[in-house]
Structures are given as C-alpha cells and as structure tokens.
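We emphasize that the prediction below concerns an isolated chain of 350 residues; any contacts that depend on oligomerization or on bound cofactors are therefore not represented. The input was used exactly as deposited, without trimming of termini.
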Amino acid sequence: MHILGVANGSVGGNSEILLKAALKAAQEANRSITTSWVHIPSVTIPPNPQPLEGAADISLGNNPAMTAAHDGADNVEKHGGDDRQALLDAFLDADAYIFSTPIYSHGPAGFLKGVLDRILGPFTDATFVSMVLQKHQEGDPAFLHMKVDERVLKPRVAAFICVGGSTTPDQVSQALPVLHTQIYPMHVKIVDQIVCQDVGRPGAVLARFGGRYVQRAGELGRNVAGEIGKKFDEAVYRGPGSGSACPCCFLDSIEPYYEDNKIGCVACGTKGRLHVDETGTIKPAWDNPCGVSSASWEGKALHIRDIHEQMVAEQMDIDACEQFEERLHYWRAVDTPRVPLTVNTSTPQI
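Result of the prediction step, given as a token string:
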C-alpha cells in the first residue's frame, strides 16, 4: 500500500514539515506502507494544454473544451515540459493521500487547484469511468471508442492538513471545503482533517504550543495507515467533528436555502434543515443517507446525468440559434487591448 503526500506550500515550510510528520508516522504504524511526496508549486504545466491521452470526457464529445488544446499542439515544447502525466500516475497508483497546504485568503494556496484542475476533477470521475466500462461490456457503440483508466476506481482514503498564521476562524473558513472538492470525483473517503492556526512563520509548528501540531500530524498519519486499503463504505472517519457536522464530509460549513429552514453543506451539498433543540440552540438536522452529496456515489452519478442532460439542452439551443457560428467567430475575433506578458505571448484559441 502506498501513500502519496501532497505539499502545497513553501519549500521547507510548516505544511511540508507536518506532511513529513504524517508520512513518517504512517510508515511507523504499518511497515508495509510505502510513501512518496510531491511539491505542487514545483510542478511544470504548460498554459492551456490539451487534456492528457485517456482523460475521461464526461461531455461525451459535446464540449470541445474537454478535448482541445487551446494554445496549439506544440504547447508543451514551447513552455519547457509537462509534469501532468507523471503527477497523474502518482495519484492513480496511490492507495491514500495526505494533503498539506498553507491557507491563503481563507482557502488553500491556489497552486493546488490550478494543477489538479488539469488532471483530476471531471477527467477522473469514478462514476463516469464506471459507466463507460459498463457500456464497453454491453457493446454500446457510442462508448466503444472511449478510453478510461481503471486505476481511477481503486479504493482510496485521504486526510487534510491546513496551516495558517491567523487565530480567527473566519480566516480559514474555506480551507477544508475547497480541499474536499479537489478529490471527491475519485470517490475518496476522508478519514481525518485538521486546521493548524497561529503558525505563520516557517518552522513555527516546531516551537508553538509545545509541538502539538507535529504530534497531531503524526496522529493523522496513523489514522490514514489504519484505514488504507478499505472500501469507501468500510473506511471510518477518525478526525474531529461536532455532533452537528455534515455526516458525509464531517464539516460544519453550511449555506441557507431559507425556504422551510433548508440548508446545504458548503463542501459536499448534503441537504438538511435548521431546527431548535431542547436547549433552545439552533442546529442543523442533516438528511442521511447522503443521497445528493458529492461525497456519495449516488450524488456523483446524479451530477453526471445532470451534465449530460444539460449538454443535450445546450446543443438544441445552439442548433436553433440563427447564425451561431458567425456570431461565435465574431466574438472570438473581437480585438481588445491585452496586457503584454513577458513569457507567454500567444493568444489561446479554441
């Protein structure tokens, strides 16, 4: 079994230290586990690249953006290489992930999303891959040409470490929710998650609070080691959470829908309602099981069906739109002043 560590901060910074503490503890807990890690800000990806060969196309060929290179076929050569395939292989070969990131402007540093949007997300959606493989078995001609990577379907668990210098909860509010969105398409079970605050200076986690955060990172690593290899419904969440947390992603982040006191989980979309308990405290009461949650298989399948239905509706409107191609060409050719760049001077095209 292999754990991939994902560091998303400064070289040698707090997030890297805590990641190494977690990976070290995981190996000590289970000597059969191997580990490796990647520093996301060091990854090289060309601008506007074509999706990798074999990347799943959930649009079923209806959305050119899912398959086209916006910056030309020679994009990789022009911009000094492409680490996407190596990084994707690292993700797909792993049995577990530990993400460790600093918090910038309430959320994880943007390097991570910028990189993972190019290789994961809709390109590695487990429900879509499963559907394509089923269609292959049925001999459906509409799907026989599609290539998908069966490694997407491997059972996996993951944990998150977030590190920030602020002491107030508002400054870290989006850190964990955003991390959840990065890997839920692969149907990964989250087994632990922590936010470490008041440690902004590189290395501060070693000195602040008696090294408590380093110890907690080790516990997180052991929790991952204890659940690695288990299927989604068998793996157990071992991290923190209040009695009112979402039952699917274990977070306390909600958004109100107002009508009938309805609410939704910001991270995964699980539905519920606000109610007043016997002490007079307003609390969420969550729907369970999590049928519409992005964390659930059913919720992901619902999203795929929604995408396909909307693609059909879009195409009908395009077909009915007078002079659509001429109008599209006009707007793409509209010339407005562009900011001059030093390195990438090309104009992306679809």
